[in-house]
């Protein structure tokens, strides 16, 4: 079903700025990542989205393709980002069918609420594997193509004129703000996202000389997403929203606009950075995960496990 443009991007951007570009996105069937890709497709790009669930990923690809007449969007399911060979095969297919890769979004992730006592070794490892290993595998599999695209699309340091054909050679890692101040019941995700941030910063330093940029987008609470639904009980959403500095939670459009900014000419001198898109939410107290249903420190001192948490298994999609 075709969505209204305002559902996934603002009216700020000029049509066609990503013409003939190709974006490769893991977790691309998820609510946030699909909006990012849809916005890029609307502005001229073709895309390849990756996911675990075959039907969901292929259905999302067809839906994203409605953003622009003539768009090509490939959905490749049955891909586990923890397995490099899976990603390499997906990258090879993307390049064969779409001609290359100019932009990468590493968006596969997993999350659930659990204290350290409640968190098993396997559960911790699962999140680390999906987030950190998955992001590294995504980088390694796409790196040759990003280097090639980055080299073709360098901006002249004297005239500031981009090479013909626009931008390329850019990667965004989707992270979070949980580890900035420490968040109870989120040790696994906090450690994983800190690792992803460090990876992105290193990529910026090592591959800047090759024409690549690497940045992080750290979303805050984004409405109508699986992540927010898991971590915030529905009967507390109104109070939580009212307590936000801007009086609202984010929209997927906010993340998509940030993505366009970093991938277009506007982001040509932005690399090794973290773009926090959260309405200053992370600057509020981090002591009440679950917003009232999971009180800190009461539940820790009681020895109780967090009950009735949706999606206790780590998911590989945002």
Automatic annotation (TrEMBL):
Write the record's keywords in alphabetical order, separated by commas: NADP, Oxidoreductase
A Gene Ontology biological process term = fatty acid catabolic process
Q: Which Gene3D superfamilies match?
A: NAD(P)-binding Rossmann-like Domain
Entry EC number(s): 1.3.1.124
Pfam families to which the protein is assigned, alphabetical = adh_short_C2 (PF13561)
Task: Extract the CDD domains matched here.
Answer: TER_DECR_SDR_a
Q: Does the keyword NADP apply?
A: yes
Q: Which InterPro entries match?
A: DECR2-like, NAD(P)-bd_dom_sf, SDR_fam
Swiss-Prot/TrEMBL catalytic activity: a (2E,4Z)-dienoyl-CoA + NADPH + H(+) = a 4,5-saturated-(3E)-enoyl-CoA + NADP(+); a (2E,4E)-dienoyl-CoA + NADPH + H(+) = a 4,5-saturated-(3E)-enoyl-CoA + NADP(+)
Report a single Gene Ontology molecular function.
Answer: 2,4-dienoyl-CoA reductase (NADPH) activity
Its Gene Ontology cellular component terms are: peroxisome
- Is the keyword NADP assigned to this protein? yes
UniProt-recorded name of the protein: 2,4-dienoyl-CoA reductase [(3E)-enoyl-CoA-producing]
